[in-house]
Every structure is written in C-alpha cells, then in structure tokens.
Amino acid sequence: MPAKIDHPNTVYFGKEENNMKHIDIADIKNTPEQFKDKQVTVCGWVRTSRDSKNMAFMEVNDGTSFAHLQIVIDKAAGVSYEDAMPLGTSVKVVGTAVEGRQGALEINAQEITVLGSCPSDYPMQKKRHTVEFLRTMPHLRGRTNLFNAVLRVRSVLAEAIHQYFQDRHYVYVNTPLITGSDCEGAGEMFQVTTVGYNTEYKSEEEYYSNDFFGKKAGLSVSGQLEGEVAAMAMGKIYTFGPSFRAENSNTPKHLAEFWHIEPEVAFAELPDVIEIAEDMVKYVIRTVLDKCPTEMAFFNERIEKGIIARLEELISHDFGVCDYTEAIDILKKSGRDFQYPVEWGCDLQTEHERYISEEVFKKAVFVTNYPKEIKSFYMKQNPDGKTVAAVDLLVPGVGEIIGGSEREYDMDKLVAAMKERNMNLDLYSDYLDLRKFGSVPHGGFGLGFERLIMYVTGVSNIRDVILYPRTVGSIR
Ligand code: 4AD
Question: How sure is the predictor about 12, in pLDDT bands with cuts at 50, 70 and 90?
Fold first, then answer.
C-alpha cells in the first residue's frame, strides 16, 4: 500500500476524516515530486474518457489548473468505473500517483466515486465548440479549455493590477455604484428606480422626488468623480469595480456592465498619467506571461498565432505617442476608404484607432490632446482653447483600452466648461469644492478590464472574456 501523504495546500475544514478532503490538481501538476508514488485523492469533472480492452482512461479537471489529470483504470483490479465515464460526470478518485509515459503524473485508480452523474444530453460533448454556441450556455462554458484559460488569466491579471498599485502607495477605494451624477455626461446611465412612472405625477421633478433617493439616480458609468475626491485626500488611489453603460453599441468590444480600473493621482500632469498607464500595462502583461505559460501557450496555438511574441515585443519597447491633430493628418493621408469620414473634430472610430496602432505605429500608441467638444467636461483645457489634455491608449487588434486625462483644476475654467454643456452644477457641488479647497494638478485614467483581457488573450469578442456578458438586448 503506498504511503498516505499530508494534504498541505488543500485543507478542507482541517479534518482527516472529512469526506471531501482532496488534493488540488494544480498541486499535483506544479509539484509532482511531492506526490509521486503516494496515495492521493482528487476530484473533478470528466473531460475525456476512453475504454479499451484491459484498461480504461479518463482525464479529469477540477478547475485549479489548465491541464487535465489522467486517471488510469486497470480493469483487472476490479475498480468500478463505468458510471464515471460519461463526459461531465463529477468524480472523486482515490489512487496512486505514478509517472506516466509522457513524464507527467497520472493516477492509478483504486476507487472511483461518482459525485454527480451526467446524462448524454450534456451539451459539452464535442471536442471543440464555436464561441457562438458556448455563449448560449454561460453556465457550462467554464468547463471548456478556452474559458478555463480565460478565467484563469482574468484572475491573474486582476491580482497583478492590485499588486502594481499596492506596491506603489496607491490606496484601493470603492466608489459608489449608485450615483446621482453622470461622470461622462454622455447620457448613458441606467436609471435606478423603485417606482414606476405614473401619469398622475405632474412633473418629472415630482416623479423623482417620490423615488427611493428623492431624486433621479443611476448606475455609475465611472468611479472617477469620487475617485478624485479620494485622491484629493489620499494622493494616489485606484478603483477596481464595475461600471455600467446603457450604450446602444452592439459591438465586439462593448458591454453594458464592464469592470473598470481607475487610478487617480494628485500632483500629476498628462505626461505622468501616460507614464503610469504604460508602466502598469507592461507590468500586468509581464506578470501574465510569467504566471500563465500554459494558458498563454493555448492562446498562442488556438486563438491568435504569435500572441506571446507580440506581447513580449510590446513590453520591450516604448509605446508610441501621437497628438490627435497628427493622427487626423495620418488618417487623411492614408488613402484609406474609412466607413466613418475623417475630419479634425471627429471622434476616432475603432477602424481609425486600429489603423493607427496596427498599421502606422505597429504597437501600442497614446493619442493625446483631443478637441474639447468630443471629450468630457472635467478635462484640463489646453492653452490653444481648442483641445483638452486627454489621452487614449490604442492597441493593435482591439483599439482603445484606456481613456484618461489631466483634470481641470481651475474652478473658473471648470465651471465654464460645465455651463457650456448645460450641466446642473448643483449635482456636482462636491466635485467643485475640490477646486475650492486646496486644488492641485491631478489626473488619471480608466482601463477597461475586459478590453485588456481581450488584448492579452487574443479573444476577439468581449462576450467571451467575462462569465456573464451583459449586452444590449441580452441578459440571463
Ligand atoms: O474612455 P472612458 O469612457 O473614460 C472614463 O470613463 C473616464 N472616467 C476614465 C478616467 O479617466 N478615470 O472609459 C475608460 C475605458 C475605455 O477606454 C474602455 O477600455 C472601457 O473603459 N470601456 C468599456 N469597456 C467595455 N464596454 C464598454 N461599454 C466600455 N466603455 C468604456
């Protein structure tokens, strides 16, 4: 009988006799020497199975690693296995970890317990499904290689983002999700209400005053305004939470609910914002390349050939910087027949952004100093009177992943910009107070987490990098 081993990393309620005590497959994969020739218990879902004359084989995955673990059943040993063979069955296996032919550990089964059977109408039978098919079953697609890899990279990226800021004296703050003020002023807020509209209300004002908060409220499109509040006390802050946009954009890069990372830094100007964004993006990509080699090899082979080399290249060079006016010149001289015409003053569309990053710069590029009319009220007005100190980061394959700016910290100029946009100043009194009491140059940016994941994995549709995508016309 092989020696039983301690289960050092996978303690379930600490009790040896606990029925579900088992070892994470990740531990067996990562430190095989610890488990070789020992008795182990593993759990997982059957991902492949094969029955032959004297032997049967199954691969199980418990979600802790990208790689499956092979279970070998010697039929002569009399282990009952037939009920465990259907794909999707959840099992607990007790057996001996031995070195298989390929050098990786596999488990010679002594006992297999079916935890949950899986009938033949389990939809994940085929080896490869289209992403469109998988989108129709978000509750099961996590059990495919693609989503296993995406969710794992997503988790590592999230940790890396926290690490980056935590190591550099940023304070993590949680800004409100329900708000009374629209940060971007683009009218894309979902309304939050507990009362239905009723024609008996004499005015909008009366309707809203009867609502839960006593005035109109919505889901925040960005935590920036409150992030600025925090930065005016804590100096350097970042948020990492969901933002909501009722944008009617049914595109591969828009979600109605996306995760947003928003650092805000006091005593900083536009070049500082650019430097932080570049440094952070490089840091998190380096971390994923180091920590997720198996997942990245999968993306490299199946999703986007050459993606690892492309990311390595990206982080080893400076990002480009290009003034908006220069970008418009480049686009006009390109000879390209863009769907959206290009004129100074227009907003850059994805086709323009991708042309600039993919074909002109062939790398990530910051576009700066946009016309003030197409940007938000809070951006610092440049001396030319026409542009603001805005910055977007465009990357090949995706387009914009970051939008940010230096903020207007002069009270008079800020108020003028808000009045030009017919904004209700009363709703922004906290924000204006920051300009009154010890205003400082400051700035920050917003990084769309799903867009970053798309860029790092090569997955081309934003619906496939989040567990449950929320998009216009679709929810479950
Ligand atoms: O450019 P945006 O609208 O900027 C802001 O919200 C600023 N308040 C950020 C700041 O300065 N603190 O959004 C920032 C980023 C975009 O570059 C994009 O990556 C992402 O958020 N984003 C979306 N991602 C997915 N779906 C959507 N509908 C998105 N809208 C914006």
Answer: very low
The CB of 254 under 6 Å from ligand 1? The reply is: yes
- For the stretch 336-345, contacts whose Cβ atoms lie closer than 8 Å and that sit 24 or more positions apart, written own/partner, are 344/371, 345/371, 345/373, 345/374
CA angle 167, 171, 174 (to 5 degrees): 135
Closest ligand 1 atom to 249 CA: 28
Distance CA 468, CA 147 (A): 12
Helical H segments across 18-92, by residue range: 25-30
At 154-195, the pLDDT tens digits run 999 999 999 999 999 999 999 999 998 887 777 789 999 998
What per-residue string of b and e applies to 271-292 under the rule 16 or more CB within 10 Å gives b?
ebbbebbbebbbbbbebbeebb
Q: What is the DSSP letter of 296?
A: H
Confidence tier at 8 by pLDDT (50, 70, 90):
very low
Q: What would the two tokens of residue 28 be?
A: 């067996």
Structure tokens at 400: 């914009």
Q: Which amino acid is at 466?
A: I
CA 89 to ligand 1 center in whole angstroms: 41
**Residue 428 neighbours by CB distance under 10 Å:** 21
Mutate to test the pocket of ligand 1, among 190, 221, 258 (most ligand atoms within 8 A of CB): 258
| pLDDT surpassing 90 at residue 14 | no
Contact 186, 406 (CB under 8 A): no
Percent of all residues in the chain with a pLDDT value above 70, rounded to a whole number? 96
CATH topology of domain 141-186+221-464: BirA Bifunctional Protein; domain 2 (3.30.930)
Residue 4 pLDDT greater than 70, yes or no: no
Per residue in 384-424, pLDDT (tens digit) is 999 999 999 999 988 999 999 999 999 999 999 999 999 99
Atom of ligand 1 nearest to the CA of 403: 1
Q: How far apart are the first and last CA of the chain?
A: 50
3-state secondary structure of 227: helix
Q: Which two tokens stand for residue 328?
A: 């418009």
The 3-state DSSP class for residue 238 equals strand
Point out the ligand 1 atom lying closest to the alpha carbon of residue 227.
12
To the question of domain 11-116 being in CATH 2.40.50.140, the answer is yes
Q: CA geometry: angle at 444 spanning 184 and 278, to 5°?
A: 125
The Cα 41–Cα 21 span in angstroms is 7
Q: What is the pLDDT of residue 18?
A: 66
- Cβ contact 405:443 at 8 Å: yes
Residues of the chain within CATH 3.30.930.10 domain(s) are 141-186+221-464
Residue ranges of the chain that CATH labels 2.40.50.140: 11-116
Is 244 a residue whose pLDDT tops 60?
A: yes
